[in-house]
């Protein structure tokens, strides 16, 4: 699981274990993470825990002074270990107490044949052929390439063939993004050798010689 360490002016005020579901933050004593300070709204924010995916998501509740993660104001944010949440003058450090489980092993796709382009999974080395006009990435069993995660929806992104041109598209704008050679994109033409990151899973796009 994970926990929050509450600090004020570099002094530790306490810790709060995060649990599945809603971990509310605010000035009211009823909140599991209660911080009695006028710079903090009565109902300031919450951290939603997903026990299956082992992830925690911070969301601001339209607080007056806002919620910051690593000094950047956020409305929603997928937390990573050692992130520092700033609320008023208090710092809440998010710590993961155990390592996240390994990603679900990639399915054994057949080796690409003929003139089809393919994706190489950079984590597993598996080859993912692209024989269709549109190939969907998503967390649904009906998607062509399964990408696990709460923030990945059905048909989250796609690779589309338009004649001899291949284009990657972000279809669902949530927390996760798609990256092409390290830069976030919504849509981009692909070239052989391009590195694609979809929902944290990295691939290399390859065209046959």
Describe the protein in words.
The chain is mainly β and 209 residues long. The protein contains no helices and 22 strands. It has strands at 2-8, 11-18, 21-26, 33-34, 45-50, 55-60, 67-69, 72-74, 76-78, 84-87, 90-96, 118-121, 127-129, 134-138, 145-146, 157-162, 165-170, 178-180, 183-185, 187-189, 195-198, 201-206. The strands form 4 sheets. It has a 6-stranded antiparallel beta sheet with strand order 2-1-11-10-7-8, with no helix packed on it. Strands 13-12-22-21-18-19 form a 6-stranded antiparallel beta sheet, with no helix packed on it. Strand 21 and strand 22 (201-206) form a beta hairpin. 26% of the residues are buried. The model has no long low-confidence stretch (mean pLDDT 86).
Portion of residues within helices: under 10%
Main beta sheet strand tally, sense and closure = 6 strands, antiparallel
* Residue runs with pLDDT of under 50 for 5 or more positions: none
For the residues shown, what is the average pLDDT?
86
State the separation between the terminal residues, measured CA to CA.
47 Å
SSE run: EEEEEEEEEEEEEEEEEEEEEE
Radius of gyration: 21 Å
Strand content: over 45%
Number of separate helices: 0
Shape: elongated
Strand order, largest beta sheet:
2-1-11-10-7-8
Number of strands: 22
Structural class: mainly beta
Keywords:
209 residues; mainly beta; 6-stranded antiparallel beta sheet; 0% helix; elongated
């Amino acid at each position: 699981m994970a926990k929050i360490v509450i600090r004020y002016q570099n002094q530790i005020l306490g810790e709060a274990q995060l649990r599945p579901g809603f971990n509310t933050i605010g000035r009211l004593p009823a909140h599991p993470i209660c911080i009695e300070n006028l710079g903090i709204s009565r109902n300031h924010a919450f951290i939603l825990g997903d026990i299956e995916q082992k992830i925690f998501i911070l969301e601001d509740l339209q607080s007056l002074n806002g919620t910051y993660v690593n000094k950047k104001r956020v409305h929603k944010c997928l937390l990573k270990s050692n992130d520092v949440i700033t609320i008023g003058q208090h710092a809440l450090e998010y710590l993961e107490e155990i390592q996240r489980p390994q990603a679900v092993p990639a399915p054994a796709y057949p080796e690409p044949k003929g003139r089809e382009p393919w994706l190489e999974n950079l984590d597993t080395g598996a080859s993912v052929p692209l024989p269709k006009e549109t190939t969907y990435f998503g967390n649904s069993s009906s998607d062509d390439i399964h990408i696990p995660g709460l923030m990945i929806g059905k048909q989250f992104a796609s690779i589309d063939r338009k004649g001899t041109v291949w284009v990657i598209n972000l279809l669902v704008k949530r927390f996760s993004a798609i990256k092409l050679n390290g830069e976030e994109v919504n849509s981009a033409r692909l070239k052989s050798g391009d590195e694609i990151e979809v929902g944290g899973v990295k691939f290399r796009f390859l065209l046959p010689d």
